[in-house]
Specification:
Number of strands: 20
Mean pLDDT: 93
Helix content: 25-40%
Number of helices: 16
Structural class: alpha/beta
Strand order of the largest sheet: 2-8-7-6-5-3-4
Bound molecules: pyridoxal-5'-phosphate
Radius of gyration: 26 Å
Low-confidence stretches: none
Largest sheet: 7 strands, mixed
Length: 521
């Protein structure tokens, strides 16, 4: 059985034991509505305020507001809405308004979209400008100095989700010294990894998300500096002191509260020295596995928990498949559509070469990952390196071959076969041939083979699929069931067969990744 090595903590983390226990406790013993005045409600309110107080202390929020939300996206919208309402008030009162909304070039989409959305919806007509970053991913502070007089709102994240690059917030703050601009710092990726003492800073708004640090999904928080403008985004029952209506997600908030309490105690999460040691071990393993590998951001400027890299001659899709074969789950640094990796806007903004942006992989771990886990991940990475070395050159060449021909729309029919229908399909199609389109290096790296009893499996890697099918015309007259890791490549291959006129081809939807536990290999 391949080990399960989750290395995508910047996307989300599992729920930690203290967070789970707190959430379960309130679900079992404290179900009241925190707005009710009977004892059930009062007990619920006590949990709510306990969590808020823990957040307030862990974030060093002082007299600032800490408002619970459904996640960082909502917190960001609240902040941007509040800031832009304030700008509109200032304009309506006759004040001269700086004309720019200045957003860092590597901000999360949620920030950019929120600024665009509220600028349009509130009909402010301000100009959305991008603050460039340098080759190391940090904001261009000399431009910022020149642009601040024109800036009404500045958005600069604390640490980047794709690269882990830590912003120079002290440098930005020094420039903001006597500027009236409002300042939003998306702090999602910093929580638990960088010291935060929000009240000591000039930051006006800061957003957080529970599920990025071992709390449940669906809970977040907005910090608003004392005295800074705030306008509620959701009104109704007056919860959160009228700042965010809607009955509170108490299990989520209690879970997030448990994480803040753990941060305060300092006894749950690994410290900075341990995180750096874990990174060093992973960096060594990556260099051993893939000679020539490059990191897309200078490690000394990054969160110790994020590694963004590319391997010459390997696409991000190939690397994802290879790593997953050894049980390692990571993210492509860039979006993949129809198998063609687009460049990552974050890496493009840093001026990374096209191949490194398109081929980027983000490997991120969390402060609950043990040294034993990191050792296992390192061993698996080295296994992947060996598998790639023996088959990679061939694969790299195949990746350059033309994209498989796609069928005309008319030829498309339902080719997806779910796992629940597999037994019945095999029963009714004893003559069906299963074709595994995964690459040999995936099997070599440890991917489990799949072959239900009494059914032949043919290995035809996608990289050689088109010529192999041409060389075997008999396959065009036999029911075929194609499979791969996630269902993407088997779908591509099935569509190719349809385009060639095959009438009886199916593909295993969701791929082997969705294999139910009870289905043997
Ligand atoms: N900001 C950053 C930097 C993030 O990484 C994320 C999550 O991907 C968000 C904002 C949005 O968080 P959520 O999806 O929890 O609302």
């Amino acid at each position: 059985m391949t080990a399960h090595l989750y290395l995508d903590s910047n996307a989300t983390t599992p729920c930690s034991a203290p967070a789970r226990e707190a959430a379960l406790h309130v679900m079992e013993h404290c179900f009241g509505n925190p707005s009710s005045s009977h004892s059930e409600g009062l007990r619920a309110r006590q949990w709510l305020e306990r969590s808020r107080n823990a957040a307030q202390r862990a974030l060093g929020a002082g007299n600032g507001r800490c408002i619970f939300t459904s996640g960082a996206t909502e917190a960001l919208h609240m902040a941007v809405f509040s800031a832009l309402c304030e700008l509109r008030r200032r304009r309506d009162a006759g004040a001269a308004l700086a004309p720019w909304l200045l957003v860092g070039a590597t901000e999360h989409k949620a920030v950019l979209q929120a600024v665009e959305h509220w600028n349009n919806t509130l009909q402010l007509g301000l100009q959305l400008r991008t603050l460039p970053v340098d080759a190391s991913g940090r904001h261009d502070l000399s431009l910022l100095r020149n642009w601040l007089p024109q800036t009404a709102l500045l958005c600069t994240m604390a640490a980047n989700n794709e690269t882990g690059v830590i912003s120079d917030l002290a440098g930005i703050e020094a420039l903001l010294h006597d500027s009236p601009a409002l300042w939003l710092v998306d702090s999602v990726q910093a929580l638990g990894k960088l010291p935060l003492a929000l009240e000591q800073t000039r930051i006006d708004y800061a957003s957080f998300s529970g599920h990025k640090l071992y709390a449940p999904k669906g809970v977040g928080l907005l910090y608003v500096r004392a005295g800074r403008p705030f306008t509620p985004l959701i009104v109704g029952g007056g919860q959160e002191a009228g700042q965010r209506s809607g009955t509170e997600n108490l299990p989520g908030i209690a879970g997030f509260g448990a994480v803040f309490e753990a941060l305060e105690r300092g006894d749950l999460f690994a410290d900075a020295t341990t995180l750096r040691a874990h990174r060093e071990a992973l960096v060594r393993a990556l260099h051993d596995a893939f000679p020539g590998l490059v990191f897309n951001a200078p490690l000394e400027l990054c969160l110790p928990t994020t590694l963004n890299f590319a391997v010459p001659g390997a696409s991000s899709r190939q690397l994802m498949n290879l790593l997953e074969a050894a049980g390692i789950q990571v993210s492509a640094g860039s979006a993949c559509s129809a198998g063609q990796a687009a460049g990552s806007p974050v890496l493009d903004a840093m001026g990374r070469p096209d191949w490194a942006s398109r081929g980027a992989i983000r490997l991120s771990f969390g402060p609950l990952d043990s040294s034993d886990f990191i050792d296992k991940a390192c061993a698996a990475l080295r296994r992947c390196g060996a598998a790639w070395a023996s088959h990679g050159a061939e694969a790299a060449e195949a990746a350059l071959s033309p994209v498989l021909q796609q069928p005309a729309d008319a030829a498309l029919h339902d080719i997806d076969l779910g796992w629940s229908a597999l037994d019945e399909y095999l029963h009714h199609h004893p003559e069906a041939l299963l074709i595994d389109v995964r690459e040999p290096y995936e099997l070599l790296a440890g991917a489990a083979a799949f072959g239900p009893a009494n059914h032949a499996v043919l290995h035809l890697p996608l990289s050689r699929f088109a010529p192999e099918i041409k060389a075997r015309p008999e396959l065009m007259h036999r029911p075929l069931l194609l499979l791969c890791r996630s269902g993407n490549r088997s779908r591509e291959a099935a569509l190719h067969l349809l385009a060639l006129g095959h009438h009886d081809v199916r593909q295993l939807a969701g791929g082997l990744a969705l294999r139910p536990a009870e289905v043997p290999a």
